[in-house]
Amino acid sequence: MYIANEKRYDKMIYRRCGKSGLKLSAVSLGLWKNFGHKGYFANMEGMVHTAFDLGITHFDLANNYGNPYNGSAEENFGRILDGMRQYRDELCISTKAGYEMWAGPYGDRNGSRKYLTASLDQSLKRMGLEYVDIFYHHIFDPDTPLEETALALDNAVRQGKALYVGVSNYGSAQTAEISAIFRELHTPFIVNQPSYSMLNRWIENDGLDKYARENGIGLAVFSPLYQGFLTNRYLNGVPEDSRIGKGETWLGEQLNEQMISRLNSLNGIAERRGQTLSQMALSWVLHNPAVTTVLIGASRSSQIIENAACIEKLDFSDEEIAEIEALLR
Ligand SMILES: NC(=O)c1ccc[n+]([C@@H]2O[C@H](COP(=O)([O-])OP(=O)(O)OC[C@H]3O[C@@H](n4cnc5c(N)ncnc54)[C@H](OP(=O)(O)O)[C@@H]3O)[C@@H](O)[C@H]2O)c1
């Protein structure tokens, strides 16, 4: 039987999600890859236990996560929870709906009340939960009125199936639009989930980080390691068992000589800071005051241990920031 580490809250940092009362661990674990039935259950379970033992309280899922079929990550997470349900109130569990999930018009990529309501019920069943802590609309849908999407999320809260709601992959203008509706409804809308990393800074160009900060919305940012680029994974080639090696990402073609040389230069700065490249990349993301938490992915527990230690050095000198900026330009 799993017994959590007694010292799990000694080191991790918890940050308030926007202006809400909810605190999230600065490092969170996402279950997009490596948690479907294609993986080894013992490895998945080990990763969740390792994360929780390190004080990671926030676990991020979505209806469509998992290989070989959508929903298998939630099924496995439900099984893992079966061995640790005594800790349910120490966990913040999120799920989402919005991308293609099941056949036909109601499970297609959309933001309808029909889809979101049915999907959340399915997610709760797969994970064996009465409620999730955060329910997200996964991607903006230009064809559904935002009022409808907002009402569906609001309804999930009123029904007690979600405590808070969020949106993901919404730009600042879309976030502002749905925020106005949530304000009228008094919906606990607390978080946006965008991608963000040293190699992907669209939220800065869009102004989403500024908007979120000014409006009390938290940012839970995904792919903070650019799916593994910003780690020691690819400094000397492409390992077979890596995400690129397994052909599991569309980003592989960006790994050219110039990119490898840039990653090695960043690694040099990380070494001087006494960090690994992944730790520095996560510290850099957390250095943006708009960011509440980094949602990391992992294929093994050792990566989680390495990454969680990023919180030991979150500060950057002006010189380090300038040197990094020069490399990212
Ligand atoms: N809302 C959305 O649309 C959306 C989209 C994507 C992701 N997400 C969320 O964000 C989470 C994280 O996304 P992500 O997996 O792309 O994040 P990521 O942290 O950028 O990449 C994770 C991958 O990097 C490699 N890695 C991590 N730590 C490492 C270390 N210390 N040393 C070497 N390699 C390391 C592993 O790949 P290997 O397999 O090569 O070991 C790992 O699977 C997802 O699980 C999901 O919850 C949300």
Topology, please?
Blueprint: E1 14-16, E2 23-25, E3 27-30, H1 41-53, E4 58-60, H2 72-82, E5 92-97, H3 113-127, E6 132-137, H4 146-158, E7 162-168, H5 172-185, E8 189-193, H6 202-206, H7 208-214, E9 218-222, H8 257-273, H9 277-287, E10 291-296, H10 301-308, H11 318-328
Parallel strand pairs: 3-4, 3-10, 4-5, 5-6, 6-7, 7-8, 8-9, 9-10
Antiparallel strand pairs: 1-2
Helix pairs in contact: 1-10, 3-4, 4-5, 5-7, 8-9, 8-11
This protein binds NADP nicotinamide-adenine-dinucleotide phosphate (NAP).
NADP nicotinamide-adenine-dinucleotide phosphate (NAP) binds next to strand 10 and helix 10.
Q: Provide the β-strand percentage band.
A: 5-15%
Query: Reading side by side through the largest sheet, how are the strands ordered?
Result: 3-4-5-6-7-8-9-10
Order of helices and strands: EEEHEHEHEHEHEHHEHHEHH
- C-alpha end-to-end distance: 50 Å
CATH H level, superfamily name: NADP-dependent oxidoreductase domain
The first-level CATH class name: Alpha Beta
Structural class by secondary-structure content: alpha/beta
Low-confidence stretches: none
Principal-axis shape equals: globular
Q: Let me know the largest β-sheet.
A: 8 strands, parallel, barrel
H/I helix tally: 11
